[in-house]
Amino acid sequence: MQAVGVVVEYNPFHNGHAYHVQQAKKLTGANIVIAVMSGQFLQRGEPALVDKWSRTKMALASGVDLVIELPYVFSTAHAKQFAYGAISLLHAVGCKTFAFGSEDGRLQPFLDSFALIDRNRALYDALIKEYIATGISYPKALQQAYTTLQQQFPGAYIDLAKPNNILGFHYIEAAYSLNAEIQPVTITRIGAGYHDAIDEQSQIASATGIRQALFHKQTLQHVAQFVPSTTYQLLEEWQQTYKAFASWHAFWPFLRFAILRHTPEQLTMFPDVAEGIEHALIKHAKNARSFDDFMEKIKSKRYTWTRLQRILTHIYTGITKEQLHAHVTPSYIRLLGMTENGQRYLSIHKKHMTLPLISRVAAVQNTMLALDIQATTMYQQGLPCQTIHDDYNVPPIRK
């Protein structure tokens, strides 16, 4: 059985994701799709719309055969570490190929861009430091350093100002750094752009657009045409149970408490809290009227919205920089769900996997896994209805 891997958040699973799954199988000839999926908190530093088990059900109903969890350490990290964790897991589970969506849709420019940076690594790193010293954010410093390299060594390179291209580049970088026998394939992103609002004349919308519609319209009917029927049903079940979808707006009272219960010195225990931002966090948490009001007060050129949200995620979950930095590579494969074909794949390939497969959390003691369990506990506490679904009492989902 040949497997193709995909790296996903499915926040929520929509028609564009279904297309991605279909194309991944078509372009690689694979008969198994394995998704490495973020857990309860995501790469842009926010809680997932619905929990990882609901999103696993969405995936299994729409063509994915195995869903494994990207640990919190990587799912809430910047793009390079996020990609490294994900590709490491796909390699460990036996994928021979991985497929990623991109705005460009051609593989060669990604390979050329990687070669450009890899050949000029010392210069690239020096340029990044030079641009950061001017006071701009780290992502902007990366972009400017890359632009400078392009000007010095002209060629047909990828546009790294676009979000899916950025992740695609880091997936390829991770595969090379691992010396992994896993080949990349890219699929052109169709329909809406990453940040676009929904277009009622289309069947494809971005996950961002779908979430915005759900939060602003407060009705599922506005997104029905953009998601598979199973996704719609699962969103409907979630809304009936919890009355609201997860977001920082819903979690704001708990996040505010988490900030204010710490002194400025204690806040510096958390990742990326430095340069006095700890004082601003406390000052504005005291008087902000809402999460958006709070964010507008604390964001700056150096502290972007995404960087701040990652900081807030760690403060909310209580996971410190010491805990995060203790882990640099995945130490297990956490199974969230499988189809019959997925189960058959595991039976054939399990003995060849390079990391232990975890299906029962209670049977394992692992410090990285403990952070996932802690993140789930805190995610659950932010929901208005305390229906407990935790890592100990939810077994892998079977379809």
If you had to describe this structure to a student in words, what would you say it looks like?
The protein has 399 residues and is α/β, with parallel strands linked by helices. Helices cover 50% and strands 10% of the residues. It is globular, with a radius of gyration of 21 Å. The model has no long low-confidence stretch (mean pLDDT 92).
Short description:
This protein is of the alpha/beta class.
Observed structural traits:
399 residues; alpha/beta; eight-stranded mixed β-sheet; 50% helix; globular
Largest sheet: 8 strands, mixed
Unreliable runs, pLDDT <50, ≥5 residues? none
Strand content: 5-15%
Cα(first) to Cα(last) distance is: 18 Å
Helix tally?
Answer: 18
Helix-strand sequence: EHEHEHHEHHHHEHHHHHHHHEHEHE
Structural class: alpha/beta
How would you state the average pLDDT, rounded? Answer: 92
| Number of strand elements | 8
Helix content: 40-55%
Radius of gyration: 21 Å
What shape does the CA trace take? globular
Organism: Lysinibacillus louembei
Protein name: tRNA(Met) cytidine acetate ligase
Catalytic activity: cytidine(34) in elongator tRNA(Met) + acetate + ATP = N(4)-acetylcytidine(34) in elongator tRNA(Met) + AMP + diphosphate
Pfam families: HIGH_NTase1
